[in-house]
Structures are given as C-alpha cells and as structure tokens.
Amino acid sequence: MERPDSVIELKNLSVGYRSGRKTLPVLGHLNVSLKKGEMVCLVGKNGIGKSTLLRSIAGIQTMLSGQILINGRDLSSYPVHELARTISLVLTDRIFAGNLKVEELISFGRHPYTNWLGNLTSSDQQKIQWALDISGTGEIREKSIHELSDGQFQKVLIARALAQDGDIIILDEPTAHLDLPNKISILKLLKDLCDQTGKSILMATHELEYAFQMADRIWMAMTETELMSGCPEDLILNGSFQKLIDHDAIRFNIRNGRFSVNHEKKWFCNLEGDPAAVFWTANALHRLRWEVTTDESGVKIQTLDKKGHYLWKMNFYGKETACKSMEEVVNVLKEHMSS
Amino acid sequence: MKREITVWVLMMLVLLIILIIFNISLGSVYIPFSKIFAALTGSSLEEKGWENIIFQFRLPKAITAILVGSGLGVSGLLMQTLFRNPLAGPFVLGISSGASLGVAITILAGMSLGIGLSQLGIGGNWILVLSASLGAFTVLSVVILVSLKIRDSMSLLIIGLMFGSATGAIVSVLQFFSKAESIQAYLIWTFGSLGGLSWDELKLFIPVVLVSLGWAYTLSKPLNALLLGDHYARSMGLNIRRTRLVIIVVTSLLAGTITAFCGPIAFIGIAIPHITRLIFNTANHRLLFPMVIICGAILMLFCDIIAQIPGQEYTLPINAVTSVLGAPVVIWLVIRRKDFSKSFSG
User: Fold this and answer.
1) Structural domain boundaries enclosing A331
2) What are residue A111's phi and psi, to 5 degrees?
3) A81 to chain B nearest CA, in Å?
4) Which of A204, A270, B174, B203 sits CB 3.0–4.6 Å from A50 for a disulfide?
5) Whole-prediction pTM value?
6) pLDDT digit string (tens) for A201-212?
7) Domain spanning B2-344: CATH superfamily
C-alpha cells in the first residue's frame, strides 16, 4: 500500500468534553494536516484547547465529531496497542513515583511491545539504549526521577517517548519551566529527531519566537473555530500572527521578529551616538515611557564612546548634564519626570 | 544496586524463617526449640500433645499470619498505586466497613432475635466468615458499579471513604439498640484474630490468598504504567477501566477474605508498602510485589509474637498490636529517609 502523504489529517474535527447529554466544544471545524517528517508547532492562547486537541489526536480523549486520520486510517479503527506503537506522548502530567529510576521510566516506553510481564528482549534493550543515547540521558540512567533537574526530566520524558518508537511524537509544552539553554537544547533535540529519523512531531508551545524559527509548519489556534495552518513566514507576512497576539501591551516588530512591551509614551527625547549605546539607551528610555524622536528642539541625549566605556551628554532645553553610567542617566530622567 | 537487593532479600528470607520457628515455639505451653525443629522437619515426637499443639494450633496460626501480612501488604500497594495516594490502604474502598456491617448485623441483629453464636455451635465461625464476606461484597459491588460510571480514580477514593463512614454509622446505630453481651461479641471480632483458623478453614483461605497474590503479580506491568498517570498509561496501550476493575477485584479478594477470616486488621496494609519502598528505594512493581510479600509476612509474624506476650497466657488483640508496633517503624523510616515524600511526587 502506498503510504499517504499526511501522517495526521483532521477532517472537520471538533474536540471538547462530553458531560452527560451536554457537549462542551472547545475547538471545532478543524481541517489541517501534518506531513511525514515535519515538525509542527501548535500555538494559541492559554485555555484555547491546545492540550484537548493533542489528547484527542493521541486517542486518549474521545473527540466530539469529525474525523482524525492517522497514516490515512481512521483513528477509531486502531486497536489500542497498535495506536500505542504509532503515537507516543510527552505530557505535562506529574509523575507520582519519584523513586523510579530513569532507565526504568524509559523502559516503560516498551510496554506496547513487551509480553504480559513486561520482560525486555534484546531488541527492546537496544531501543532503550538508542533512546538514552540520542536524548543524551545515558549519564543519568541510574538516577531517581526526583533527583533530576527540570531540563533533565524533560529529556527523560522525550527518551521514554522515543523508546515507544512511534512514527509520531506529540508533545504538550515540552519547554515550559525551562531556562533558556535547556529550552534551546530540547528544541534542537526535537528538530534533529525530525531530520535524522523521519519522525513527525506535533508540539504545543508558547515559545513563539523559537516556534517560528524551527517549525516546518505552524498550527495557529485563532478562535474556537479557526485553526490556521501554514509556513511560519507566510503567517507572519499575511498578518495572521499579529492578529494572534493582538493585545495592547505587546508590540511585534515584523522587521526583526522581536516582541516588545508596549508602554504608553509620555515624554520625548532625541538620541544619537554609538549604535550599541544608542540601542540600550533606547531600551531604558522605552522602559521609562520615553519615545525616541527626531525632533531636536526638546530633550537631547548623545552617547560618547570613550575607549571601552561610555559617556552620556544630556541636554534639557539648553541645560547640559554629563553621566557616566546608564543608572545616572535614568536618575536624571526620573528627576525630570517628577518635576 | 542489584547485588545490594539480593543481599537484602537473602537477609530477609533468613529473618522470615527464624521468625516462623520462633513464632511457633511461643504460646501458653512451653515446647523446646529442638522439639519444634524436629516436628517441623518431619520427625514424630514422643509427646503427642505437643505434636497436636504444633500442628493443629501454632502452625495454622503462623501460616495465617504470613498470608495476612502478605495479602494486606499487596492489597495496600495496589490501592496506593491505583489512587496514587500514600494514605490509601486495603480498606479505603469500604471493604472492612462492609465486612463489619455484615458481622454486626449477624451478631447484633441475630442476638436480638434470640440466636446466639454459641447456639450455632461449630458452624458459628463459618457464619461470621459468610456474613463478613457478604457485607464486604455488597459494599464492593456498589463501589465497582460506581467505578464503571466515573472516569477519575480520585472521585472513587472519596466515594469509598463515604461508604466507609456511612456503614460505620449504621454499625453504631445497631450497637445502640443492642444488648451489652452482643456488643461485646462484636467488639471481640473487631479486635482481629490470627488464631481462629483451623485446617478446614485454611483449605479455603490458603488457595484464595495465594491465587490472588499470583494474580496481583500479573498486574505489575499495568501498575507500572499507572505510575505515570492515566494519560500516559492509556497512550501506552493500557485499557484503564479494565485494569482498574481487575485491581479492585484482586484487592477485594485479598482484603475481603482476610477480613472475613481474621477480622479487620488495621495499619499493616498501609505501612508495608511504605516500609518496602523505603528499604528498597524502588517504585517498580515487579520488584515491589515479592518484597512486599516478604516484608508483610515478617512484620505480621513479629506482631503476632508480641501479641502473645511471651510467658503470659493472654494474647493481646492483634489489631491493636499492628498499629502500636507499626506506627513507630514507619515514623522512624520517614524521618530517617528525608526523600520519603518524593516517592509520591515527581
């Protein structure tokens, strides 16, 4: 049989909760797909139903209506053990066994393949070793779960999913609570997995900046009934992305992909000098609600590069002050603001 | 690590054998160690009376103690993993309160109808067993029916506790309307007893407990999956509802049978899994089951030895001894091992 192009295909899918006779739809009218070897990031506001959608695709939560095709076959036609060999999960759920060893936890990923007692064959052992190697968790294999840092724990969870060896890995916010180096190393690990093993990855995330750098495709949950799917750059250029983060307090710079906090500006200031110093001075001005203008008639700041240290010359309507540090500049500005 | 565990297991097996012999050597009649050892290894004794005491009373009691300790330990472990709650034990689903209700109805209501247990003669013990089983079974059937309805295990735990309180209250009402002598008969049952089983009863008790223990061991893999939570377990191909049902049935078989034959025995079921986890520092059920069985047997034999108060004719109520002895052990372990709480959090 020819393998279908899409490993995950949602057709007019609606997901949510059923309570008695009532249904509580969370996300509906979903028509998107994920191709083999793609890394897809699912983004959207808190509470819009990203986790619900992921659980429904993984088959651990019943969908409300529509169809989910996994490798071209209807999800409901998969027996549980076959589905377990196709999709593996990394969730945000807590694990209630702190004294479980890393290697044991990863070996549980082999459950869909082992016999009723869970005996590991040599091919199971090989898979576990491979998962340890590729996730870089080999050194901590003897440790207990409760001894791990958040970053290590997340890698172990990914290793468990790898040991389960499905073509599809679904992750729910794998980088939440991680510091920057750990975030990047997890995301790089996932990206490398896609490239090297041909596995398809679907991941819900709030890391918009990295999602748009690394994902092959973005699923963007805009409203309860609209899930946009597309190449990250297209979504930015056609304005969908700005709509997603449509909020007064945030400003997205389409030229450099940077987000900034949008303060209401009250004071104006002209700024010139060395580019690095100007950039960080503008940063401080922005924080203090100063707008940088080209108008030279009001407050003026000039930065001077004195061989490795900077000086600031400030001019308040003709009255001049010199500062040696950003802190001094800020104090002068604050004095001006309170007068 | 593997070697460390082997050493521990060997040490505990030796301790178990020592305790069995010591347990059998104790009682109101003094029998020398050498004679006990001779009798147990198959030689016949000159003193037929001693032989009778050893084989008709003390050996059945030691076997009962071993099975009660292992059985309650294992059912406690099953409940703690199912509910992912360190306070869960064999009786959280209302098994012992169900059994108490059955027994209370039989003794208290039966006596007010003028039927005393003494009048029932030899069958009296069986009637108690039957009424305890019926009571436990009734409460459990309700809990199982509810468990098929609801999704999450936490609600089930709360419902089990509610059933426990409700049946406890009914027993209180029954007691309020009963005569002092029947209340005393009921209270004696609640003290628990390991010595009440003859070979006739053991013929039923031993196979039921052994089969249930074996059945529990076959649940190692699903239980390990449940350690990761329902979502992960389901994603690894586990049928949660069926597994939950089997866990409840096995727990009921163990805890229900033990309560029916020996009365409610507190604490052991909660404490043994904790003690085992703390000693062996593992959460893997394939290791935990055999260890819990050994630890349970050891602690129960030890409690029984204490209950006999060496040199005295009295025996203390076993139900009290388990708690009085077990509580300090658990407190000591929890304080010594600072990471105790970690075994229930990630």
Assistant:
1) 267-338
2) -50, -40
3) 5
4) A204
5) 0.86
6) 999 999 888 888
7) ABC transporter involved in vitamin B12 uptake, BtuC (1.10.3470.10)
